[in-house]
From TrEMBL:
Protein's recorded name: Gp47 domain protein
InterPro entries from the UniProt entry: AB_hydrolase_fold, Lysin_B_C_ter
Organism: Mycobacteroides abscessus MAB_091912_2446
């Protein structure tokens, strides 16, 4: 603030305002002058909105999962907790998370529009240069990863200008989880050589801009985030593609390819496909398929 408003950010004697950890009468006088110039009540108190305008408080965007309330869930818990602590301004994302097959595009469109907003309806500013966080869960993790991959990270992406201000992101129960990637604090991580259930995975490791800024949070036996690389895993992916994308063809993990494989290995393949159908439909029907998460380490990571 001293640098941005140097013309009046001065001490009582007219010299520069001292930069320290003490908020004294000189600082209060400068804050009142700032409030006068910005048509605010002259209380002398630095508000959370002031910190956002100065680019000091990150906005925290969240996208919850299938059939979830955007105000309730692991991402909402993390963001709302940090907001109560004055460490973030929470921006939940609503989208069509009811439809089957998944309507991920509705979430992508909504999150892109929110990230491209410069001023929200409630008056919260989001100018270029404002830091931002992202927490995404389950179907919402698919939405968030697609936005990062297609709109934020590419140099020609609509939101590439936001990349330099990206602070941290975490995906929980991610169907796009990259093989063998999991946050170090998870006590029961997925088994080695497993990945998200879908046939595309968010390879955040190839982007130096995300070094130290991205975490995958998944537990073992998470049907969406822990999928093996064997025949059974390919069958799980095939069924998941039908349920989430209505995709029947394309690649080794398509249901057509898996059925054709029955002619080569009919007994083993039939068991795998039937089991995949049962497990995947159970997973879609019950949000408990992800298990529960200890979110305290997640909070500590965002606080750091």
């Amino acid at each position: 603030m001293v640098a941005r408003y140097a013309s009046y950010a001065k001490a009582a004697g007219g010299g520069p305002l001292k930069v320290d950890s003490y908020f004294g009468y000189d600082d209060q006088a400068v804050q009142k002058e700032y409030q006068r110039r910005t048509n605010q009540p002259q209380t002398g108190i630095v508000s959370a909105a002031d910190l956002v305008k100065l680019g000091l408080t990150p906005l925290f965007f969240t996208v919850e999962g299938h059939l979830s309330d955007m105000f309730v869930g692991p991402c909402a818990f993390v963001a709302s907790t940090l907001e109560r602590e004055g460490r973030a301004v929470w921006r939940p994302t609503g989208y069509d998370n009811v439809r089957l097959p998944f309507n991920n595009q509705s979430g992508v469109d909504e999150l892109v529009n929110r990230l491209d907003t410069k001023l929200f309806d409630d008056g919260t500013p989001f100018p270029e240069g404002t830091p931002w966080n992202l927490a995404i869960f389950s179907q919402g993790a698919m939405v968030g990863c697609e936005v990062m991959e297609k709109h934020v990270l590419p140099t020609n992406g609509r939101l590439h200008y936001r990349l330099k201000d990206f602070r941290k992101g975490i995906a929980l129960g991610n169907p796009y989880r990259l093989i063998n990637q999991c946050a170090p604090w998870v006590p029961d991580p997925p088994q080695p050589n497993t990945q998200g259930i879908m046939d595309w995975h968010f390879d955040f490791l190839k982007y130096p801009e995300l070094a130290g800024k991205w975490q995958e949070h998944a537990r073992t036996r998470d049907w969406y985030a822990e999928n093996r690389l064997d025949e059974a895993g390919q069958n799980m992916t095939a069924i998941a593609r039908i349920i989430t994308q209505s995709s029947w063809t394309g690649g080794a993990s398509s249901i057509v390819a898996r059925i054709m494989d029955l002619f080569i290995n009919p007994f083993d393949g039939l068991i795998d496909i039937v089991w995949a159908i049962v497990r995947t439909f159970q997973g879609i029907a019950h949000l408990e398929a992800h298990g529960t998460y200890d979110l305290n380490p997640v909070l500590d990571w965002f606080r750091s």
